[in-house]
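The protein record minuted underneath.
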Amino acid sequence: MAGGRTRPLAFGPMRRMDGTWLITGLNGTVAPKVAERLVQLGGDVVGWDRGAVPPDDVAAGEAYLAAVRPAGIFHLGMGAEAWAGRLAGYARDHAVPIVVTSSVSVFGDAPDDPDGPFRPDDAPTARDDYGSYKARCETAVREAHPEAVVARIGWQADPEGLGNNMVAQLAAQADAAGGLVRASRLWRPATSWMADTAAALVALAASDRSGTVHLDSNAADGWTFPEIVRYVARHTGHAWTVEEHEELDHDTRLIGDEDLIAPLSARP
């Protein structure tokens, strides 16, 4: 596994994250780790209960934001792009930081989609429903608040192997195939440990960064998918057998902001 740096980056919030931070998506995977990081840094966390405050109820949403008076917002949940735009508008009007997660999927995931690696100023090219939806959310946020942080992320790995993440998906594939994972040696995916992504998102809220950023721990390392599968297996205690193939020839790395997140090679 050539390339990359050999130790974690020092980028991170150098101050306490006091105040109450609003996080959407706390029933997901990345958001709980962002909440954990904020609490470690002295912050309080509140979520958005969609049952009590439907995201499409504009008046209820405004009342909820007025009651919470968040010190900042992390919009990590799924929902209509109009909701993302309203949250960004609140952050603009009240001069509080907002970090919105987007996805490498804005560039599409079909073999005939444009090849990467992709840079922050590259225009989305997705044609599928999910990628197009994430691109529309990006547009809504930028139109409402050009200084908002839109953080594109890739495939997330979590050692706990729970929920929607690479470890769970690889484990399911291996379980169904007698311990075998098939992986293309021609694919270089955007990949990060979920905890590193959460730390980077919190650090962005504490920084003066704005606009679109890319969080990809494989950006500089450039490891192929078989290399990543073996690396993840070693770190999570799985004895997967990797069968390499060449059925997917694609580079989907997110480059341009390698200073914002530790590389995969930081965990040898």
Summary: The chain is about 30% helix and 20% strand. The mean pLDDT is 93.
